[in-house]
Amino acid sequence: MRRMLFFSTLLSISSLSVYCQAQFEPGYVVDNEGNRTECLIRNTGKVVNPNKFEYRLTPGSDIKTGTLETVKRFGISNSSCQYERFMVDVDWSTSKGNALSTHYAPEYSTVQLFLRIVLEGEASLYVFIGDNGLEKYFFKIGDSEVRQLLYKQYVHEGAVRENVTYKEQLLKQMTCSSLDRSRFTALRYNERSLLDIFSDYNKCIGSPLTDYARLKNKGAFQVKLRAGIGFAGLSVRVNTFDPGMFPILGLEAAYVLPTGNGRWSILFQPTWQAYKTRGTLFYDNGYTEEPLVPSNPGYEHSGERRMITIRYNHIVLAIGGRRDIHLGVKSKMFFNASLASNLIINAKDSYDTEDFFIKPKFRQTSFFVAPTVIFGAGYQYHDRVSIDINYAFNKVVLENRDWQATFTTPVSLALGYILVRSDKR
């Protein structure tokens, strides 16, 4: 019954989250009047610059389309996806051999574009990436207009030559004692090289800067405190003990991967659990303590019933993954899958029998005996508090040479509070 309830809840949550949000993530939109609106933006995962995008004002609301005519700036929060609209002069010359220009001078055309903001400061760097992989970089110093950093390959007298005007453009604009001419001479026309010199220049003149480019290659780390209750029965050979509740307490360390737009995480969850129950133990086929061998079914104590008290303290060590699905600007669903094993704390004192001819001695025979698969789902609000439900399959909690104790349909419910977290991605 609990298994059916768990999977019904999981299916309902999964269906709701997919219906509500799918690929929409927290972000913002700035309209032509400069009004900023927090919203949910569809993250397509594409590297090319868009000329339009889709967004929602709230989870489940109608999808709107932002265009060059209606939006001045937009972005996905805590990511490198930050775009601003500019009217710029662009030289569209390509570096493909069969389409090289034969002119040294740029051939400009004026066009309105969403440029991705690479770095923002007194000196700002922008980029436009086209569908064909064409990369064009732009810059702005202070309150000046945004201009293209000019680089083009062209053919002259049968040979491929380069126009590297961008080096002179920056040399004239970036005057600072820590940047000598050799830095500009060695400057390459790619994001990493340009980003480094823009960053160094802003630092040199004491300008605050925002490096959006580094967000796309940065993971995040967080530590969460988890506390709650578990609910499970216990099976020992032919004996089944009534289900009961028990406390759980633990930590969760999560690393948000730098790929996948921060939707995937690696988890490590050490969780303490204290299970206690009391019931009748049926001695089905006889037993003698180690190092002796088990007795045969005709043993004189076979079939006896005695009361037994079970006190099982252990730490579940789980390693797995998580998938996040954003529901709104401040909330998200998540789904977990983990592989876990038990570190037994009180193996020697876990069972107390009354008037029994022996006291079974259970022990941990191997660190990863019969590893457990755990599936779960949960909800997190404002990157601070969470609630989750988990179900474990075939959870062996104790065993010795002849006996094995297994939790039946173990379900847990836990509240979480994030204690430590680094900057996102």
Overall shape: elongated
- How many distinct folded domains? 2
Total beta-strand segments: 23
The CATH topology of the largest domain is given as Porin
Termini separation: 41 Å
Mean pLDDT score: 83
Report the helical percentage: 10-25%
Largest sheet: 11 strands, antiparallel
Helices and strands, in order, run as HEEEEEEEEEEEEHHHEEEEEEEEEEE
| Overall CATH class of the largest domain | Mainly Beta
The CATH architecture category of the largest domain equals Beta Barrel
- Low-pLDDT parts are 1-22, 286-299, 363-368
Can you give a write-up of this model?
With 425 residues, the chain is mainly beta. It has 2 domains: 27-216, no CATH class; 220-421, Beta Barrel (Porin), CATH 2.40.160. Helix content is 11%, strand content 51%. Strands 1, 2, 3, 4, 5, 6, 7, 8, 9, 10 and 13 form an 11-stranded antiparallel β-sheet that branches. A hairpin with a 2-residue loop joins strand 11 and strand 12 (159-163). It is elongated and about 100 Å long.
